[in-house]
Amino acid sequence: MKKYYYYIPLITFILLILFFSRQLFLNKDPSHLPSVMLDESFPKLEFNQLEKYNLLTIEDIFSYDKPSLVNVWASWCVPCKIEHANLMLLKNKHSIRIYGINYKDNLQEADEILNLDGNPFYSIGVDSSGRIAINLGVYGVPETFILDRNGKIRYRHVGPILEYDIRETILPILTKLEQDD
Amino acid sequence: MIKLFKYAVILFLCSAPSSLYSQNNTNLESNSLVLQQAKELYEELRCLVCQNQSLLESEAPLALDLKELIKEKLKEGKTKKEVKDFLVERYGEFILLLPTLSLQNLFLWIGPFIFLFIGIIFAYKFYTNFNRSSNKTKTLNPAEKKNVQKILDEKLE
Fold it and tell me: Which of the four pLDDT bands, split at 50, 70 and 90, describes residue A171?
């Protein structure tokens, strides 16, 4: 009986290893941080206008009574180019309203991109200093938030939205939000 | 006497600029306090792009923005704690390089000591038992003594 007693440190050690390896393998990408903004109302921010495009306003967001997306993007951001077509798809095929936040960008180039590849955004707000993104807890572009019909942040997607993400996360969440209220 | 007076004048002139400087530049001093505080904060905050660096070490664009923001907030008269709280509200406790001592983090803080304690207890038990058992074998019974003597004698022959 006494012999088993001595195995307790070893067992504790193995349990610790299991605990750590679980963390190591389950949290696949440590750069995907959970958002603290979840279930918070979209902060009352003011944006500058991108010329020729509708200005994103807080009233826009709060008066719309369907779930919507807020996409933080920039023309210099390569993953944003990858997701651009998918945003267009969300807008045209699934008629989802997407608000754009243009992050620390050259406005002329932003305009060019939208001219070239199409404009998936209902309205656009410009954040040239990056301050607004900080207020949203954004740490890289692209990032996308899903808002419910009350303007609450319900989901945050870090990195480009791929077809897979639309199918597996974005659309299911949107339909669930629509059914909820 | 005149020599002494000369020295006094020289001393006075030498000290004048520095006193003038300190009077006119209280603004600069409070500025350097802000910079000092800002630097302390940079060291305590995590750069979210390159995650194991502090803001101080990081040149990532987001880190530069955050540093600028921190300096501004401190200049507005916000305390270090207020600035930290502002950032934690947005980026979560992950941004703090030193986790706070909260109920959620309690295990993180005292866990190592618990394990150390358990380890010490076991080490203590193990070694005291070991000594006890070695004490027991120290004394040989007469038959064993005889046997050992026999072996030794054989070897010596």
Answer: very high
User: Residue B49: which of A6, A34, A140 has the nearest Cβ?
Assistant: A140
- What residue spans define the domains of chain A? 37-180
* ipTM, 2 dp: 0.76
Show the beta-strand stretches assigned E in chain B: none
Section B112-121 average pLDDT: 90
CB A153 within 8 A of CB A38: yes
Element (H, E) at A101: strand A98-103
Q: Which residues of A touch B107 (CB under 8 A)?
A: none
What is the spatial distance between Cα A100 and Cα A61, in angstroms, rounded to a whole number? 12
Strand partners, B45: B96
Residues of A in contact with B90 (CB under 8 A): 36-37, 134-137
Q: How far is CA A57 from the centre of its chain?
A: 18
Model confidence band, residue B42 (pLDDT cutoffs 50, 70, 90): very high
Give B92-104 pLDDT, tens digit per residue: 888 898 888 888 8
Residues of A with a Cβ under 8 Å from any B Cβ are: 6, 8-9, 12, 16, 30-31, 33-37, 104, 129-131, 134-137, 139-140
Asked if CATH classification 3.40.30.10 holds for the domain at A37-180, the reply, yes or no, is yes
Nearest by CB to residue B90, choosing from A30, A36, A130, is: A36
Q: Which of B73, B90, B127 is best to mutate for the A interface (most A CBs within 10 A)? A: B90
* Residue A43 DSSP one-character state: P
Per-residue pLDDT of A62-83, as tens digits, reads 999 999 999 999 999 999 999 9
> Which pLDDT score is estimated for A31?
64
Query: What tokens appear for A36 in the block?
Result: 């603290």
Alpha carbon of B102: minimum distance to chain A alpha carbons (Å): 17
Q: Classify the phi-psi angles of B92: left when phi > 0, otherwise alpha if psi is within -120 to 50, otherwise beta.
A: left
